Amino acid sequence: MTRYIIRRGIQSLLLMWLTTLISFTIYQLAPGGPLQFLNDDPKATSADYNRLTRLYGIDRPIITQYITWIIGEDVMPATDTWRTGRCLSDPERCGRGILRLDFGRSFYFKGESVISLIIERMPATFILGMASLIISVIGGIPMGIVSALWRGRWPDHIIMGIVSALWRGRWPDHIIRVATVLVSTVPDWWIGLLLLIILGGYFRLVPLSGMQDLDDGSLLDRLHHLILPATVSAIGGWIGFSRIMRFEILEVLNADYVRTAYAKGLSQRQVIMRHVLRNAMMPFVTGLSGIFLIALSGSILFEIVFSWPGMGRLVITAINSRDYPLMMALFVITSFLGILGILMVDILYSFVDPRVKYDI
Amino acid sequence: MKRTELQVIERTYWGAVTRKLWHDKMTVVAIGLLLFMIGISLGAARISDTFLGFSPTDTDLRSRAKPPTWADEAWPQFQKFAQTCQRTQCQWSLWPHIITNGLAGVSSCLNDGYGKCHWMGTDQAGRDVFTRGLYGGRISLRIGFYVAGITMTLGVIMGLLSGYYAATWVDDIINAIIQTLSSIPLLFLLIILSRIFSPGPEGLALLLGAFGWMGVSRLIRGQIFSIRERDYIMASRAIGASIWRIMFWHMLPNISSIVIVIGVFNVAGAIISEAGLSYLGVGIGPPLPSWGNMMQGSLGNFTDAPWLVLAPGLFIFLTTLSIYLIGDGLRDALDPWVKN
Q: What CA–CA distance (Å, rounded) separates B26 from A168?
């Protein structure tokens, strides 16, 4: 067990290091160089270009740029090769490296600290992600349970679209097949856009954008703003969870211990609550790890559609303005959070399910 | 018709599959729909020349974000209706007017519409949305098929290798790659890469394909696991067949049904991904139309011009719907264990 956790921890550290490498490589390979945003500015001269190159230390060797990005300039010798122009002229303004959570200064937001820009927007993304997770769990798990236990009867038909041999090829089969397919055939953010136009634009039932009204920060107002974005971004998770749940329950229902439980005279209710559900919930924990990534990066589209002031919108701003320090920081931080999330779920899983194989 | 008893019909596997597909009306309709969508995209130039009279890139700044021409009169009435809903009670009595005006508009459009009638309105630069939708299909469908081709090739090769060499260093390396790729936020990486390098349709397909094969590979690996110890594999190994022969001659055909089905679903998935990227403004850039970047124009004013959202969505919906139904039908038809 301890060995497994240590092993997974080392793996995660390696993955994190790899993401910094990916991020730094993209930055170096970018056509036009890191200062490409200057080309969009008609007033910028080549003197500006040289000044900024020196200020941000882009003229240094790539290796030292990478090393100081990771562990900081203040611990390095005070020479041209190791320190940026800004750091040489004022030791107070040395970069402290991403290990000490200093991701440098933003180009687009006029030298603001990148990490504070991100931290400012993190809560919004987490609120939306958690709300959508809660909705998809509350909706998905009961749906999966119902459709597994009533398999082949009408709730299952309506929910899962798995049609028994009895109805195969007749009209209920066709209708249900179409209905279940419909949800996965259009982009889910498009459904959000459509609902926003109808409910927000025409009927004014929900607000058109943002997290709260400017002059109103009450809980009710926040919930009012949250309801549509959270529901729409939960659609995917909802369907996913109910499928996993249904599949797992059907699997567990055939297990020997369930037959034993029935044989020793437990009622169906007891068997299902004590034996079936508890075991069927196991793989569900792994499903959670995917949610971390979806909550972090999948929400970019929803944040754009609903003008949600989270990290996803910051991503688009950073990319459109070619703000490389911000872009790299966002990529590294979301990757770190995702990797840590998966690690946490894996460790949790090994505690919950003692059958997990540690040699993987 | 009375069947004679004990009649034995000999059919090959593929014969049975085609027969089963042909009897599944839903799948036949879906195949027809997909062919229709491909057809109108390929014939976009001809259709817009002979019937519509617009070019996909001609801008007309006097008619920016105009509603569909047939709804010229009905649209303001609909907006009025929506306004009454916001204030007090919906004024349902407006609907007869909206419908009659709309129908009158449609018939006048049908009679004398060449070069005048924008069937799906115009976008923020005054370009005809319907024509752009037809041309957009060329890019969106092309990306869909390219991406499916790339993910399937990569996924099948990686899956075969890791399934065949299970629990050796080959398997370990492939698993490590998959684990790395699935623990970084891929949408984010795709957005960064496609913004920085602004690739064309082919480049974008390559990006989407290169980061989308992991699921296929895992699935194939699992399938290979279930057949790698079968007798026929053992037999061909015994007579000295090469690994490649075993993998592509004996293993691949036996999992071909699942490969075909996920390949089909991948086309739809790629079209949806492309739409997302282009909607964010990092996929296919203007002036080339794609179904995703047509929606991008709606970003600021989608409540005033909902057709900018609806029309491209309709194209995507019809295409992916037909692809999903075909995939669904194929899954049934390719599985010999399920009887009608």
A: 12
Q: Which two tokens stand for residue A91?
A: 């030791």
A213 in helix, strand or coil? strand
Measured CA to CA, the distance from residue B30 to residue A150 in angstroms comes to: 30
Ramachandran assignment for A105, one of left (phi > 0), alpha (psi -120 to 50 degrees), beta (any other): beta
User: B-contacting residues of A 157-196, CB under 8 Å?
Assistant: 168-169, 174, 177-178, 181-182, 184-187, 189-190, 193-194, 196
ipTM of the complex: 0.85
Residues A50 and A123 in one domain: no
Dihedrals phi, psi of B73, to nearest 5 degrees: -90, -30
Torsional class of B281: left (φ above 0), alpha (ψ -120 to 50), beta (otherwise): left
Closest partner residue to B188 among A203, A334, A342, by Cβ?
A334
What pTM was estimated for this model as a whole? 0.84
pLDDT in tens, A19-42: 999 899 888 887 777 777 777 777
In this structure, the answer to whether residues A232 and A328 fall within a common structural domain is yes
Of B192, B275, B320, which has the smallest distance from its Cβ to A331's Cβ?
A: B192
* CATH of range B13-66+120-333; options 1.10.760.10, 1.10.1740.10, 3.40.50.1980, 1.10.3720.10: 1.10.3720.10
Residues spanned by the domain of A236? 119-352
In chain B, where does the domain assigned CATH 1.10.3720.10 lie?
A: 13-66+120-333
- Which regions of chain B are under pLDDT 70? 1-9, 113, 297-301, 336-340
Measured in residues, chain A has a length of 360
Q: Output the CA torsion sign for A12, A17, A18, A24.
A: positive
Distance CA B262, CA B242 (A): 27
Tokens linked to B311: 């029309």
Paired residues of A113 in beta bridges = A105
CATH code: domain of residue A225: 1.10.3720.10
